[in-house]
Amino acid sequence: MIIIPKHIADEMIKHAYKELPNEACGLLTGTNGTVQQHYALTNVDHSPEHFSFDPQEQFRVLKNARTNGQKIIANYHSHPSTPARPSEEDKRLAYDPNIVYIIISLAGETPDMKAFVMAGNSRMQPCEIQYS
User: pLDDT digits over 41-69, tens only?
Assistant: First the structure.
C-alpha cells in the first residue's frame, strides 16, 4: 500500500493534464510508504506514448530526498489516451522492486490513478492507494 496526501494526488493529476498531449512523469518521496513530497519532472521524450526522466532532475530529487531523510518511494507517469494499466514497455522498464509505479489515465471522463508493484519476471500487480 502507498499513502498519498490528497493535495499531492491533485498535483499529480494537474501535472498530467498540463503535459497533454504528452505523457507526464515524476517522482514521489517519503518514508514508510507515505508520500511527503511530489516532484514533477520533464519527460525528455516529449511523447504521448512513452517517457524518460531528465537525469539531472532525477539526481536533484534523489539528493533532496536524502537531505530530508526520505527515499524515492514511487514514480508516476500518465497515459493520455489509454487505461491506467502497465503497458508492455512499462513492465519492461520497471526495474526497482522497492518502489511503487503509479499510472494516471486521462482516457475517461475523470482521471484514474492506479498503483502497481513488481511481482517478478516483469509482472506487475496492483497496489492499494490510500488517500490522506
Answer: 999 999 999 999 999 999 999 999 999 99
Q: In this predicted model, what pLDDT tens digit does every residue of 2-27 receive, in sequence order? A: 999 999 999 999 999 999 999 999 99
pTM (whole model) above 0.85:
yes
High-pLDDT (> 90) share of the chain, %:
87
| Cα–Cα distances in angstroms (integers) from residue 29 to residues 4, 61, 70, 85, 107, in the given order | 10, 8, 6, 22, 27
Q: What is the DSSP string of the chain?
A: -EEE-HHHHHHHHHHHHHTTTSPPEEEEEEETTEEEEEEEE-BTT--SS---B-HHHHHHHHHHHHHTT-EEEEEEEEESSS-SS--HHHHHH---TTSEEEEEE-SSSS-EEEEEEE-STT-EEEE-EEE-
| Angstrom distances, CA of residue 8 to CA of 53, 92, 118, 119 | 19, 27, 23, 26
